[in-house]
Amino acid sequence: MIDPDAVTANLAQVRAEIARAAADSERDPGSVALVAVSKTIPPEGILPALAAGQRVFGENYVQEARAKWPALRAQHPDVALHLIGPLQSNKARDAVELFDVIQSLDRTSLAAALAREIQRAGRRPLLMVQVNTGDEPQKGGVSPGAVDAFLAACAGTYGLTVEGLMCIPPAEDPPSAHFGLLHAIAERHGLRHLSMGMSADYPAAIQMGATHVRVGSAIFGARPARA
Ligand SMILES: *Cc1c(COP(=O)(O)O)cnc(C)c1O
Fold this sequence. Notes:
Elements (H helix, E strand, L loop, with lengths): L3 H21 L8 E5 L5 H9 L4 E4 L2 H14 L4 E4 L8 H7 L2 E5 L2 H14 L4 E6 L15 H10 L5 E6 L8 H14 L3 E3 L6 H6 L4 E4 L1 H4 L7
Parallel strand pairs: 1-2, 1-8, 2-3, 3-4, 4-5, 5-6, 6-7
Helix pairs in contact: 1-2, 4-5
The chain binds pyridoxal-5'-phosphate (PLP).
The site of pyridoxal-5'-phosphate has 14 residues, from strand 8 and helix 9.
């Protein structure tokens, strides 16, 4: 089902598109990290991306990442893994062990669990707070009006260093207003990293200041339905 040549070609195209979007907004293309979203993609789909030098990957499910990545990482120890999906507090231990970046910090119970596991493991993934810029009830993320208090609690109560923000705009909205909002919140708090933009809209996100774009289907093709 996975065509390795297609992955290689798609990846080259996404890289070119990132370079173009960065140039359009007079940004250094090196200031935009491509997070290749490999959720549901089996190792044979990931290998061509690794062969082409891709080293930053995003996964949504702790369990799936745990099954796939240790073997791939044995071959490529310089891979950085980002958790971009919702994280249950009872999976915080696995997440701290496995991921270099956790982008989906979005509630105080999770902040407490992560603080505990970071302390225990002596390993400190870079943390980003997910913001629910569209205030959608079914979606994870801190609502924009609660972000200031949440960031204060992360630092003050839990001793966590948050270094960026992430958002997933509502599918039916034009994304730019959401990207602009995320940018403004990050600026207000002096946060360096902005994870925004997916296959459909990453060039726009780069124009709005994204430092991380999360691109799945444009690289790996349409995902198989999740069982
Ligand atoms: C699946 C996923 C992506 C990638 O989406 P594509 O449209 O396939 O690029 C990015 N971010 C998050 C949080 C995701 O769950």
